[in-house]
Design brief:
The structure holds 2 protein chains of 2 kinds.
Chain A (H helix, E strand, L loop, with lengths): L1 H13 L6 H11 L1 H18 L1 H4 L11 E3 H4 E3 L6 E4 L9 E4 L5 E7 L2 E6 L8 H10 L1 E3 L19 H37 L1 H15 L3 H13 L4 H9 L13 H30 L3 H8 L4 H37 L11 H4 L2 H8 L4 H28 L16
Antiparallel strand pairs in A: 1-7, 2-3, 3-6, 4-5, 4-7, 5-6
Helix pairs in contact in A: 3-7, 3-16, 7-8, 7-11, 7-13, 7-16, 8-11, 9-11, 11-13, 12-13, 13-16, 15-16
Chain B lengths: L1 H27 L5 H5 L6 H11 L5 H13 L14 H36 L4 H15 L2 H16 L5 H4 L8 H35 L2 H8 L4 H38 L5 H10 L3 H29 L7
Helix pairs in contact in B: 1-13, 5-6, 5-9, 5-11, 6-9, 7-9, 7-11, 9-11, 10-11, 11-12, 11-13, 12-13
Classes of the chains: A alpha+beta, B mainly alpha.
Chain lengths: ~400, ~325
């Protein structure tokens, strides 16, 4: 009894004087200004993602925000052809589009003073009829540069780039979180089993991990997405018919099922590395005396794994998740950029940097590509700085040593 | 040493088998195969079956995989499943020099952009120079290569009226016209190199800082050696060992990055080839190219392990 009291007194003396949490946070903030920057950026990402409807000035999917009657801007060179001249003073950018009806999109290629009409649908030659219809009944959604009305400008379809960038935050956040939740859970599960059970199970899991890690990450991700992202893939069909994953618009995101499937694919791509790292930690933890004690008390293997080992690797898992989250966001942008990720009308940073916007950028219309990319870079930067500060605080030995963030060829 | 290399090369075999089988299995799980993609308009089941037969897709899976494996063992990487039916080796002959040059130039740039700033910021910690280098490294780590790539092209066009030459005339080998060739590869390599340079810089800095705190460095100082000699001759060599590991591991990232950057900068290399093959479910091509990637990655890491021994004689190969 006396010894216990003495021990508890000694223990209390060893505890440093308590500093109020707020003051400690302020101290920490002063020591890690870049970490504060990270916190701000990540918080901003979350808030814009969650409250996108309130923050965005326009509907990200709706064109026609800055429409002008086409006839006011251009006149046909002659009635029989599809070549037009731009009227004096009309400000037209490159590659304007005209919708004749909801089905068809007519693309007008604007080069200097002439406009050529092209059908959006391939293999169909435009006719003077198209031009006439374009002139008579439709309006031009103009690409317009940054202005007071549209701070980030508008894209090819006249959609507000600022609103698309804001809604892109929601997609990034959603995909990142689902991917990490899935990937880290499965990876940790495999890692704990592989490390604890050992033997044949360990060999099988680790050799599979070896094979997966020998893939270049981007190629692996592309392959997984092609496999499970297909319209009739087994995973997709299963999710659609046997799980409550909504298929239509959900939380303001159109085509939620596709987004969910892409998240799973990205999650799968990180399973291998998470499993490898967690296994390593489990190998050393299972040698501890308290594990032996638990076993001596008759605890089952599953109880030891999930009640004794898992809590001890929890901190590592959280760090892994925080490192992987920006990677998942980058990965989403990369695959969407390559055209296999988020399907077109959905506002995604990666998808908005490709296709027509990319062609626009190559001819000098930089804003539809610039701002989504800037947002993406900022978010990854924020996560990296947060991660750096976090590592500085939790383990000074690791200062700057762990290559965080990108570094995976994205 | 020779035993070690031999053993490592033997480990390659199960990894290669695993990689190729995984790719094979994954692409077998896709509902529509290359035959379905090839006959879209007016395709009767008979035509489809003929196509499948011609491509060899109607055989049982183990036979398909086994035959492919047999052919690869004999240096035949199979044929594309698209109409061209081009052998993979023919395509690789054309494309490997492009990707090879891209990767080599990227690695050189990454080392040039990574090690010197890392050294400077380690020997002058806390100075504005150090601060600048560290800020730069976090920035390079965070900027996605595809965005930077597009911006380089976009602003190159609108400010300098300059487009990378490959957009107009395709790949020009170095031997034909070194100047045009370097123009083709300078920006893709630079963009791809930044993130890797940042990782190298951070690691060089922390590892050199650690080495500079060692006793033998203090000895070197107290002998009155110049800073240059202390840092370059005594400290840097040891500090670069962990950096080498990162370089080896980054080869995988580099190969993945080449897929993206080749598409951005319109370079017809292996990366673009595999991207197109994945999109077309051309799975023999994917299988062979992925196998090649994996071999390159594992070999690069083997080379790194061997270089260890050269940099640090204390390391023994168990």
């Amino acid at each position: 009894m006396a010894r216990e009291v003495a021990a508890s007194i000694a223990f209390e003396e060893a505890v440093p004087p308590r500093i109020p949490a707020l003051r400690r946070a302020l101290q920490m903030a002063r020591k890690h200004p870049l970490g504060v920057f990270g916190v701000v950026v990540v918080a901003a990402l979350m808030l814009t993602g969650i409250f996108a409807e309130l923050v965005a000035p326009y509907d990200p999917l709706a064109p026609n925000r800055t429409t002008k009657a086409f006839a006011e801007l251009a006149a046909p060179v002659d009635a029989q052809t599809d070549v037009f001249t731009v009227k004096d003073g009309a400000d037209l950018g490159y590659g304007q589009t005209v919708g004749i009806d909801s089905e068809e999109i007519i693309v007008l290629i604007i080069d200097g003073n002439t406009i050529t009409v092209q059908r959006g649908a391939e293999h169909t030659e435009p006719t003077s009829h198209d031009a006439g219809a374009a002139l008579g009944s439709s309006t031009v959604d103009s690409v317009s540069g940054p202005s007071a009305k549209h701070p980030f400008g508008t894209d090819r379809l006249g959609r507000d780039v600022l609103s698309r960038t804001i809604f892109g935050a929601r997609i990034s956040l959603m995909i990142g979180l689902v991917a990490i939740l899935f990937g880290v859970t499965v990876g940790s599960f495999l890692g704990v089993i592989s490390g604890y059970i050992g033997g044949l199970v360990d060999s099988v899991i680790q050799r599979s991990v070896d094979a997966l890690l020998a893939f270049p990450p981007v190629v692996l991700l592309l392959a997984i997405i092609t496999v499970i992202g297909d319209e009739d893939s087994a995973v997709r069909t299963f999710l659609a018919h046997h799980t409550p994953v909504p298929q239509g618009t959900f939380l303001g995101v159109p085509d939620f099922l596709s987004i969910f499937v892409i998240s799973l694919a990205i999650g799968l791509a990180v399973v291998a590395s998470v499993a490898r790292v967690v296994r390593g930690a489990v190998l050393s933890i299972k040698e501890n005396v308290y594990i032996e004690a638990a076993r001596a008390m008759g605890a089952s293997d599953s109880r030891i794994m999930w009640r004794h080992i898992l809590p001890n690797v929890a901190a590592l898992i959280v760090i892994l998740a925080s490192i992987t989250l920006p990677l998942a966001i980058l990965a989403e942008a990369a695959v969407s950029f390559l055209g296999v990720g988020v399907p077109p009308p959905v506002p995604s940073w990666g998808a908005d940097m490709t296709g027509p916007n990319r062609e626009l950028a190559l001819s000098g219309t930089w804003w539809p590509v610039f701002f989504p990319g800037l947002a993406l870079s900022l978010v990854v930067l924020g996560f990296n700085m947060l991660g750096d500060a976090f590592r500085d605080i939790s383990d000074p030995r690791l200062r700057g040593a762990l290559g965080s963030g990108n570094g995976r060829g994205l | 040493m020779r035993n070690y290399i031999l053993r490592r090369l033997l480990i390659l075999i199960p990894i290669m088998l695993g990689v190729s089988f995984l790719t094979f299995a994954m692409f077998r799980m896709i509902p529509g195969d290359a035959a379905v993609l090839r006959c879209q308009l007016g395709c009767t089941p008979e035509v489809l079956n003929d196509l499948r037969h011609e491509m060899g897709l109607d055989r049982p899976w183990y036979q398909q995989y086994g035959d492919w494996l047999w052919d690869v063992g004999h240096g035949d990487l199979g044929k594309s499943l698209t109409e061209s039916r081009l052998p993979v080796t023919t395509e690789l002959d054309r494309r490997l020099p492009i990707t090879g040059e891209l990767l080599v130039m990227t690695m050189i740039m990454a080392l040039l952009l990574g090690i010197p700033p890392g050294v400077i910021s380690a020997i002058r910690p806390g100075t504005p120079l150090d601060w600048l280098a560290r800020l730069g490294s976090v920035l390079w780590l965070s900027i996605p290569s595809f965005w930077l790539g597009i911006l380089v092209i976009a602003f190159g066009v609108s400010w300098f009226n300059w487009t990378p030459p490959q957009f107009g005339r395709g790949y020009v080998p170095f031997m034909d016209d070194p100047w045009v060739n370097l123009q083709q590869f300078f920006f893709p390599s630079l963009v791809l190199a930044l993130a890797i340079a940042a990782a190298i810089m951070r690691l060089t800095r922390s590892s050199l800082l650690e080495v500079l705190g060692n006793d033998y460095i203090r000895t070197a100082w107290s002998k009155g050696l110049r800073e240059r000699t202390v840092v370059m001759r005594h400290a840097l060599k040891n500090a670069l060992i962990p950096v080498l590991t990162i370089v080896g591991l980054q080869v995988g990232a580099l190969i993945g990055g080449s897929v993206i950057i080749e598409s951005v900068f319109n370079l017809n290399g292996v990366g673009k080839y595999v991207l197109e093959a994945i999109l077309r479910r051309d799975f023999f091509v994917v299988q062979s190219v992925v196998l090649l990637f994996a071999v390159a990655f594992v070999t690069a890491n083997l080379v790194v392990d061997i270089l260890y021994g050269w940099l640090d004689p204390r390391i023994r190969y168990g």
